[in-house]
Amino acid sequence: MIFWDLDGTLVDPKPGITGSVIKALTDLNLPAPNSDDLEWVIGPALLWSFEKLGAPDPEAALDAYRKHYTGGGMYDCSVYKGIPHVLEALTAQFRMSIATAKPHAYARKITAHFDLAQYMTHEFGPELDGTRNDKAELLAYALDITGDDPARCVMIGDRHYDLKAARANGMAFITAGWGYGGQDDLSTADAHVKTPSELPGVIASLIK
């Protein structure tokens, strides 16, 4: 089984996520960094990000964010070049699932909108109430549902949250070098790829 992170791995969500964060902070009369200074919010649970941004009530900030995000921000993203071709190639040989920190209620709409859902056996993400916000817990839940042996699985992601989740569950990890993990320590990944076209060969070497 291949587990894919969504944001920063399959799609570039920067305009929609950072734009919705800025609008949420503005709604609450809180200081709003510019979009480039908010790239670090792409990946972890947004409730944690609003805490780090100093929101007195992170839940209220998250509610404001979701108003803007569901109002159109979720589709203000793009599929990375080469991803559809790679998914098409891999689906003939491997089962694939989404494992994202984005609530699955949103992730499923995005994968359907961009025609990525057709390649996925399952799509795992937290509940809207925050259940399974922790990526390691989410991946453990996914393995319980699929019944897969983690030793025969690989997680593909761009952030250290993805790497830690894979390691916590005894799973190989591939770093997607086109994402938002540039400042993360990903040195212990099993492989680091710079382009999607490298993935099929690397995955085949890790899942035997």
Automatic annotation (TrEMBL):
Gene3D superfamilies referenced in this protein's UniProt entry, alphabetically: HAD superfamily/HAD-like (3.40.50.1000), Putative phosphatase, domain 2 (1.10.150.240)
A molecular-function term among this protein's GO annotations: hydrolase activity
SUPFAM superfamilies cross-referenced by the UniProt entry: HAD-like
UniProt cross-references to Pfam families, sorted A to Z: HAD_2
Keywords: Hydrolase
Origin: domain of life: Bacteria
GO cellular component: cytosol
Name recorded for this polypeptide: HAD family hydrolase
Lineage, uppermost ranks: Bacteria, Pseudomonadati, Pseudomonadota, Alphaproteobacteria, Rhodobacterales
